Amino acid sequence: MTLAANAVDSLADLRVDGARLWQSLMDLARIGATDKGGVCRLALTDLDRQGRDLFSDWARQAGCELRVDAIGNIFARRPGRNNALPAVMTGSHIDTQPTGGKFDGNYGVLAGLEVLRTLNDAGVQTEAPLELVVWTNEEGSRFVPVMMGSGVYAGAFTLDHALGQRDRDGVSVRDALAAIGYAGAAAVPPLARDGVGAYFEAHIEQGPVLEAADTVIGVVTAALGQRWYDVVLTGVEAHAGPTPMPLRRDALLAASDLVRAVNDIALAHAPNARGTVGWMDVFPNSRNVIPGRVSLSVDLRAADDATLSAMDVALRAAVDAAARRGGVSAHVEQVVYFAPQPFAQALVQAVRDGARDLSLSAMEVVSGAGHDAVYMARVAPAAMIFVPCKDGISHNEIEDARPDHLEAGCNVLLRAMLAQAGVAA
Amino acid sequence: MTLAANAVDSLADLRVDGARLWQSLMDLARIGATDKGGVCRLALTDLDRQGRDLFSDWARQAGCELRVDAIGNIFARRPGRNNALPAVMTGSHIDTQPTGGKFDGNYGVLAGLEVLRTLNDAGVQTEAPLELVVWTNEEGSRFVPVMMGSGVYAGAFTLDHALGQRDRDGVSVRDALAAIGYAGAAAVPPLARDGVGAYFEAHIEQGPVLEAADTVIGVVTAALGQRWYDVVLTGVEAHAGPTPMPLRRDALLAASDLVRAVNDIALAHAPNARGTVGWMDVFPNSRNVIPGRVSLSVDLRAADDATLSAMDVALRAAVDAAARRGGVSAHVEQVVYFAPQPFAQALVQAVRDGARDLSLSAMEVVSGAGHDAVYMARVAPAAMIFVPCKDGISHNEIEDARPDHLEAGCNVLLRAMLAQAGVAA
Fold first, then answer.
1. What is the pTM of this model?
2. Bridge partners, residue A423, by sequence
3. Residue numbers of the domain that contains B402
4. N or C, where is chain B less crowded by C-beta within 10 Å?
5. Nearest beta carbon to residue B290 from set A226, A278, A285
6. Test the B interface: residue of A243, A262, A336 with most B CBs within 10 Å
7. CATH code for the domain in which residue B285 is found
8. Which residue stretches of chain A have pLDDT < 50?
9. Cα–Cα–Cα angle for A279, A282, A283, nearest 5°?
10. Does residue B200 share a domain with residue B97?
11. How far apart are alpha carbons B263 and B243 in whole angstroms?
């Protein structure tokens, strides 16, 4: 690879076309565009088909060979000089939330496309083949589970399980895929897992960290593990007037203590831990009745399993303490577990190097949300590149990102992919 | 009155018939009886008419003259020897909550009836006339405002306002009264306010204090004043995963601090102050989204206005503190104010004396809830007698009370009324 590395060095001045990338983002965003400037392009709808068709046209025009697997993932291949080498893959998704934006997912796909176009324009042949992938139904808005396409690919759940899922109208994934013409024939993926030598995914951060730090490139070291819980606190509902304070068993008071405790648990494991109560149901929820029952969700996240386990222990102690103090009973049930997922050190370094070579400001960050890259990291070396989004807002029609940041992230992707794939001398 | 007082003393052994009182409670409870042992007899429904008809029959059989006013209050008069004297009045209501019990309101009416029956059986003529009243729509379940009949009588709002109120089906109080045949002709009440010399109301406590203290008679000294508030806390909704703790503006976290603070404010003004957050709405109320907006109710109660005002000041400071700590904005609006209502000292003493004369355990309590007596106290001397209810539970089909307690409260009512009305020698 020395020869190839030298060849990569010779391309040190190669840059993507930021204006072309932006134009492609805007063109794709027209499909399912909303009045408020966002995009509604739910997985496996006709709008999704239109988006897939546009991507497929672009990928073919870029010289790619396209294959679709049985869950509708689209693989666009740009051959290398030595196609026996594992592919260097990049991609993301083009389905959106119902009130989604132009960049979430779409940026990762079109940044990958821009890398291929740039290589074409410069006449660069890579040693290893490149693969640009569009994963099916990352968002999970219409069909659960989320990250469906990458989850099937990585073996997180079975193809049959995914195909059998239904939307609220009773339509199955299987039928929806067939209806839009993206049900690939082969149950066996067109690209074997061990055919992937590296997976990169560029994405808007969907959080406020980079913007707050005035930094362009997020070098994503890991995806946070998650434990989700249902908690029910049961006291006694009673009239707010006739019931003196010492005789109360107020479930909302106990719940409030728990909300504060969840926050404190996350702060105790700063900077990467998270603790959130996002959902709460108060019964009977009447102005002058002391709440007799409160149900609430707890979402704990951390970058490593030891921390996540310590937070679990602390949470259960906090529930007990809040219940005891409030004279209520408590039930805690863990309902979701995602293991923390470190990214591949060599690929993380490639991202770091790319930012350094381009003199871009960069910092290590963790991914708090799920991404297709998190499933891919289970079966192949993987890493992510984050760029800032305005006010950290995503999953919202006002989601926005700066063209120069998107271009910068795409250049880092180019460098990282070239470094992995090598360049034919 | 010395002569009359002596005559009252001569009736020291007079007792009500507890079994007859219980039987009347059970008979009335058949009208609107629910499968779970409660009563659903909403104001101005045909079931309410059946209850009113049964009461009216009983009152006539007890020798009373009945009049109905324009808001449907029923006045049953037992003449005294000197009918120029102001009447000694007792009563309550017979409408119930949708899932109400057998005792709330009904006890006060039928305890009054039992007093009259007892006097009849013993051939006792009082000096002053007695009045037994059934107030219209105390519960407010079908028509607001609550305590409608006593409110009109006491001038808390106008007759026209009350008659114009409509239920969810658009039926007005005016039409509902006419439909059940209880729309009195005269806009002027059949009994002028200054014709009421004393008003007593017996009631189940609807709270846990007497039961916890193993005490039979609650000598009610005052009704708590109330301030109700709407509070809105506005932060920023954001993804639970990608948003580090220090960058959050979590409205639910601020709300939780406020719930604890409301509790502390009430505890700081023990034993009679109350502070309750009974209602809370979390937006967007999604498991993995940091809440961006929380609306909640605050209900503060105290026995005197100085305390209530101090609690108001403390609440506003607590809202500011919670908002500042959480980095959210806050809006507070007072939506309801009821002034604290002390009861008439002489009548409270009459209740205290009655319990003492009967060797019943007794303690001073406050009424945390609203009652018809609270409006009556604005226009006439008034007092209340509480008896325990099981587990402090009311407004519930499992509401329960002990026959011996109900009998004891009725005997106290008898003594107190006799002491006020005097007995013809």
1. 0.89
2. A126
3. 2-223+340-421
4. N
5. A278
6. A243
7. 3.30.70.360
8. 1-3
9. 145
10. yes
11. 31
